[in-house]
Amino acid sequence: MFEINKLVRENVKRLTPYSCARDDYKGSSGVFLDANENPFGNLNRYPDPYQQKLKTAICRTRGVNEQSLFLGNGSDEIIDLCFRVFCDPGIAKAMIFPPTYGMYEVSASINDVEVIKVPLNNDFQIDIKEAESHFKDEKLKLIFICSPNNPTGNSMNQKDIEYVIQTFSGIVLLDEAYSDFSDEPSFIEKINKYPNLIVMQTFSKALGLAAVRIGIAISNPAIIQYFNRIKPPYNISTVNQEAALNKWTDRNVIKQQVGEIKKERERLTFELTGLNITDRVFPSDANFLLIKVKNANYIYNYLVNNKIIVRNRSALVDNCLRITVGTRNENDQLLNALKRITL
């Protein structure tokens, strides 16, 4: 039987949340003299602290209830909240599967949490046997799985993900930032089955709103209520909420843009595979490609000198570049530049 309170830090359980003016009065109209706001201007009022309109739209599309949904100031806030809710500084541990998204480890360091690293195998999949050998460590509180993974681009084996969730007694955060570009089903449909699962998504990728900084967490309502207790009261601005709501409700545009990116991903894969500088283009379920090349440092600098910016990931995966799928014109500029390289 999963008991959330056994995992939550004692000081967090004792915490009396900050009560903002919009907690006392939830109406949308009236003479507002309660929050010490400037009475003049169009953006003079504090934003909705619980983003009700945006949440209603997300819940309608994702098929979840509002008690299971949390919106953060980017996914990075959600990652940080996981550490602050579940990990006692200097005592708790978290697990990651490198190479993976760097903020898991950075946030762990900020919160003074030791990181157990279980490297992905040669197929960029989870080494289940090695991971499971740590599950009995009572100090291990959090496991982060990124699928599709950054920077490798592949989806993790769904049976492996589910085995980790079933077997580990702590919290599993499944980062689905790139899931809209994958044909694999989301684990959102398994939230009610696994109370220790947090599924994280974002407005930054498929929705094209990286500038608005909104991350999505869907989980057991008991976990969500702790996120709401310790988050800053007004963590997402009114401007960002409105931009996100407008984009979220335009499903046809989202579908069209995702489709174009996937088509360009396949075209790039074919074209890059044929270049003499390329050793391998790894399969991708994301909006980027990881490619192994003959001299990553040289090629990266060559592209920079031509005002084409990719990501050199050689420190994580030997001689590899990560290339985001751009517009057709941007991708053509990349390909034309790469074709000019002689090694």
- Tell me the fraction of residues in β-strands, as a range: 15-25%
Number of domains: 2
Order of helices and strands: HHHEHEHEHEHEEEHHHEEHEEH
How many helices? The count is 12
Mass-distribution shape? globular
Number of strands: 11
Helix/strand/pairing category: alpha/beta
The CATH top-level class label of the largest domain = Alpha Beta
The major sheet is characterized as: 7 strands, mixed
Mind telling me the CATH superfamily name of the largest domain?
Type I PLP-dependent aspartate aminotransferase-like (Major domain)
Mean pLDDT: 96
Distance between the termini: 60 Å
Q: Low-confidence runs (pLDDT<50, min 5 residues)?
A: none
Strand order of the largest sheet: 1-7-6-5-4-2-3
CATH fold type of the largest domain: Aspartate Aminotransferase, domain 2
CATH architecture of the largest domain: 3-Layer(aba) Sandwich
* Alpha-carbon Rg, integer: 22 Å
The percentage helix is: 25-40%
